[in-house]
Amino acid sequence: MSRLLLHGARLIDGSGAAPRAAQSVLIDGARIVAVDDDAAFDGIDDVRRVDLGGRTLLPGFIDCHAHLGAYDYELEARIATPASLTVMRTLPQLRQTLEAGVTTVREAGGLDAGYRLAHEQGLIASPRLLLSIVILAQTGGIWDIACGSGARLDLHGAMGQVVRYCGGVEAMRQLARELIAAGADLLNIHTTSSLHKDPERLPYAMFTPDEIAAVVDEAHRAGRRVMAHVDGGPGVGNAIRAGVDSVDHPYLLSDADIELLLEHGTWLVPTLSCNYGIVRIAERDPHAGIHESSLRAARQLIAVHTDGFRRALKAGVRYAMGSDSFGRFQGDNLFELQLMVEAGCTPMQAIVAGTGDAARCIGRADVGTVAAGQCADLLCVDGDPLGDIRLLQDRGRFAFVMQGGGFVVDRLQTAESACGTR
What we know:
Blueprint: E1 3-11, E2 20-28, E3 31-37, E4 48-51, E5 56-59, E6 61-66, H1 75-79, H2 83-99, E7 102-107, H3 113-120, E8 128-131, E9 135-138, E10 163-166, H4 169-181, E11 186-190, H5 209-221, E12 225-229, H6 234-242, E13 246-248, H7 255-264, E14 267-269, H8 273-284, H9 292-315, H10 335-342, H11 347-353, H12 356-362, E15 378-381, E16 398-403, E17 406-410
Parallel strand pairs: 1-4, 1-5, 6-7, 7-8, 9-10, 9-11, 11-12, 12-13, 13-14
Antiparallel strand pairs: 1-2, 2-3, 5-15, 15-16, 16-17
Helix pairs in contact: 4-5, 5-6, 6-7, 8-9, 10-11
GO molecular function: hydrolase activity, acting on carbon-nitrogen (but not peptide) bonds
InterPro entries: Amidohydro-rel, Metal-dep_hydrolase_composite, Metal_Hydrolase, Metallo-dep_Hydrolase, OTAase-like
Domain Amidohydrolase-related: 56-405
């Protein structure tokens, strides 16, 4: 018997519709086949019934920006770590993220296609993965190591180096093609300098508009999307005008940037929790290797980062949830929802940003909502997240996490735990 009936749910379906009580969800294998009032399923046979007892049922969450393979924040620690240890650290990070109720992740650089294949083949417990493989950055950009003598340390191919440096329109096209051939589901391009390197200075633009447009053109012709890693300054507008599909964690978001987001319909992925993550890791573990300069910059940027999102929210910009979580911050992904609410979202808006709207942002029509035909990715919690969004960070309240019809967390004892997708 492969059909499962979840009944007695208080349903928040991810569409933004008001919650509905006494709802049932019929699952056949990996898919939802019907959603209706409990009474509509009274006469149904050949199903295994699970009574949710009025618990809240939601779609599995989608994190639109995370670095699941980066255990350490600072580059020197990542590249000094043996490849085998990096893999062994990554596997529990994937599981922790999944058990936190995040069933799909748009991975922003650091994992190759092997992780996605391992998940699809049922070898590992992991969120569904959409991979960028690396971040495309300009020479001299983020984490490029250069000396005063002019010498550069070439770390291309080093485990833990999540950036590929490039430049020139044709070279950008070629690299985009290589990444797509290597299995990239999307491309990630860094179009501004880093505020963490120099928080007192307005970021300057990286890559020319033509270089960015070449990457966007190659990706879109191949049916891939493009996310732009931006900190602020003119590189934000360059990315939007070039046609990227989302701009991610702009710490400095100008009114002109907001107008461009509205004009082009570009998604904003604010990642409000990223600077909090750096601070929290340093506070939890003084030996985590966070540079004092990185910690100081993170603390400086929290307020201005939140203000930019607050203004974008009031203007009506499209937005989706992303945590920018990395190794020691994995599993805290839904802290982002709390920060979105504190910035002005309603709890329902924050939930939709992490479910239905997140699915639209990443271009996946089969996840993000509880509806017939969708993947059976679900989170069941004790309590009302519309009354207190913070309870979604309390895994002790999770009755179950389901991915592809299989229970990956099951505190109702309804099924044997399963890993992987179906």
